[in-house]
Protein 1
Amino acid sequence: MDSQEIYDKVRGHYSAVSQRTSPEYGSTVAKSFGYSEKELAGISQEANLGLSCGNPLAIASICEGETVIDLGSGAGFDAFLASNKVGPSGKVIGVDMNKDMLAKSNKIKIETGKTNVEFVESGITDMAVIESGIAHCIISNCVINLVPAAEKTLVFKEMFRLLKPGGRLAISDIMAKKPLPEALRSDMAMYVGCISGASEAYEYQKFLEDAGFREILITDTKCDLNVYIQTNDDGSNKADYCIPPALGKAETEKDGEASSDYCTAGISSRAANCCAAENSYVSLTQGNLNDWVDLRKQSIAMRAATRHVQGLENELALRLM
Ligand SMILES: C[S@@+](CC[C@H](N)C(=O)[O-])C[C@H]1O[C@@H](n2cnc3c(N)ncnc32)[C@H](O)[C@@H]1O
């Protein structure tokens, strides 16, 4: 897959997703990643399209008056939540490359009368439209995995450029614990769904370090990625949704567990069927997301990092905790 093809597919996919109108779905997904009912009630439901894969705000320690940049802001979900935290004296800038997402976030901004948030059209590999050194904090939720591998390093350099000295970074993203199988890597549906483009944890660490970040903290949140495929539009659970083992018995046998242990089905009488050998290419777009990227144990990693400045490390480390 070349970079242009990836960008085209990612744009097309998120343009379609921007038209989604199922707030209950978004709410169920967000709550599964730790957002509270109260937080969600503080923003327009339309901003939450159920695209998050963690909760960067939970580790961002955002204070009143701060400037926050949200990379890949989508319909403005975390940007609007952050705008509630920074208050009228602070500012939030959401960055997205997708015009339809930007149209949606700007519409919500106008409808809700928010004056401390703005949305900027830009790729996150080159945000020249934003001045250097203005942000206290950068957040991002399930976006960096969508950037073509060869360009990811640019994203981290840009984040470092945009942060004030001593600024901090709080990211939720999906990453792989081990190399992904080629069939999965080249699966475009899984790529735009934030799985196939996942970097391995050591690569992510290196991107951060090479860009100049220090005090890097990686947390396994052990979230269940199957929430996306197991949730109905009305937010209820697909009780009879069956998740077959993705890569066949040999691949899914771990620690002596049989592959059938990895099946998830709400109705046990159907479990036997769905757990029968499922090793087809088709299953790659429907199966157990946790198994494929070995994220059931690793789950979603959250990272916090600080822009390193001599003498400020301890203070910043404390704030991050
Ligand atoms: C999975 S969605 C997450 C949206 C939002 N962070 C949320 O949690 O609701 C990914 C978003 O990142 C945007 N995006 C993907 N790649 C991007 C890039 N290279 N530059 C800017 N935006 C990008 C997409 O347009 C989409 O809005």
Note: The chain has two domains: 3-224+295-320, 227-292.
Protein 2
Amino acid sequence: MRRLVSPRFLLINPTDGPESEYGKLAAAATQLPQLGLAAIAAALQENGFSADICDAHVHGLDENSLLELIRQGNYGVVGFSVYVTTERRALAYAAAIKRTFPHVIVCAGGPQVTLVPARFHDSVIDYIFVGEADDSIVEFATALTHSSRPTGIVGVVDGSQPFPDEGVSPRLVNNIDNLPPIRLDRYYPLESFYPPVHVRGQKVVNVIGVRGCPYKCTFCAAAEINGRRVRAMAPGRFVDMLEYYISIEINSFIFYVDTFTLIKRRAQEICEEIIRRRLNIEWKCFTRVDTITAELLTIMRQSGCYCVMFGCETLNDKTLLAMKKGFSSQQCIDGIGMARRAGLVTLASIMVGLPEETESDIRNTVRLALASETSLAFFPVFEPYEGTPIYDLCRRTGKWVVDPRYSNALLKDQESVWVPDTMTRPRVEDMAKEAFRSFYFRPKTLFALGEVFARLPAARKARFIKAGLSYFLPHPRLRTRVGSRFH
Ligand code: B12
Ligand code: SF4
């Protein structure tokens, strides 16, 4: 057997760039460093292996530059983190690597691989990592130093072996407090990323302190990827992580956990600890309308929270029930009101074109959103993700208008990927655009937007103005990236 000494890992986010994910809104696109790749790199380095990250968003990448990078870095293993938006590109890069450097081991992990592992099995990928790979990647790297073909690692499928008939359950990490801390600045040029427009602060990073979600929302891939068992970082350790970032001059955070207030006591402890340590930060989070209390929202505000994003999904009770969301439209409206009274900006996410939804359902949802107290709202066109429970229902109750394996409509020019039988594609797209227009082009929201905008650092303001101009007045010269990205 060939003995490989400390293989060097190159970890890649193979995105095509913001244009493919955000279409005409690319110039204002959210681009944040991938936590998944950073977690893998941190686990490898903690165990003495060498790992570098290349994020195509910021480093720019094409086939030739990737091959050159591998040659120069003498990498033995190349790993792709694959999202629905990056599957095609990842497979194309993998094929090029195998053609040029047959000895380089190519592996893939990430959301899309975990959701549809069998599809990657018949491809040019040597090893498929299903689920959270913090532990399996270390076992894999260790095994590689002894054997050229590691086998028997839980959560890892060897592409040269038959795909297990019973499928592969995602591997999950037991205790996330045992994982090495993620320091994004070690892997990414943070000044090259952009937070979303409503995010405050001069310097911003995204952090995660919980994995897993116990809810069963049928459209969501989160629980399929990270499981239903919730594993939370100790509040003190989480706040230590914030302090680390503060020490490198970060002053604003996006808490990217699916439901920040899922464990109310933990959320409260984090807020108390931020206040006790006198951390002068601003932060926003994502949560559900049925996991908040007025008391919790108040302490969140006191500790620097300025914005809560609620996944309302729709304000149609029949659809909420069918999607097993677990709350009603009235709870959404009440939750938004409670957060507003606590002094928080609210952002309601509402999908358009859900299974069995009719034009009148959408009109009703938009009417309720307009009447609600929410400061801001998103109205993306619904897209079913493979591997989620809703996907089968979508097969029966609608049709795909583009190949679902490679496409993502979320925020991309409000284009449909799938359309319910109850509607036509142009109607879904028009109604999503109309929802945006009716929500934003009215004095109340324009005022809220003005407040958000006034707080943005100057260079980000300039970026969004140019993005807006290029969106509404298409002109090639305005379609370039502008401004310093980070602050
Ligand atoms: C934070 C987040 C974002 C952030 C940051 C993205 C990022 N890339 O880190 C932003 C807002 C930028 C974002 C953007 C998008 N996101 Co997002 N996002 C999330 C969220 C909420 C958490 C992800 C996370 O950081 N988890 C924590 C880390 C540690 O876990 P992880 O990334 O899964 O990584 C682990 C494993 O997957 C694996 N792994 C990952 N990469 C690799 C690579 C190798 C080589 C190996 C071996 C293993 C491995 O090991 C990691 C450690 O355990 C999830 C929901 C969720 N709960 O998963 C959605 C989620 C992942 N996003 C999703 C989508 C669709 C998108 C977008 C395509 C949306 C869009 N059109 O704008 C873009 C794509 C961006 C891109 N190409 O990177 C979907 C994925 C569905 C799919 N089939 O791909 C999810 C599941 C949400 C959902 N709608 O259900 N996202
Ligand atoms: S939508 Fe939110 S609450 Fe529902 S399963 Fe997904 S992460 Fe959990």
Note: The chain is about 40% helix and 15% strand.
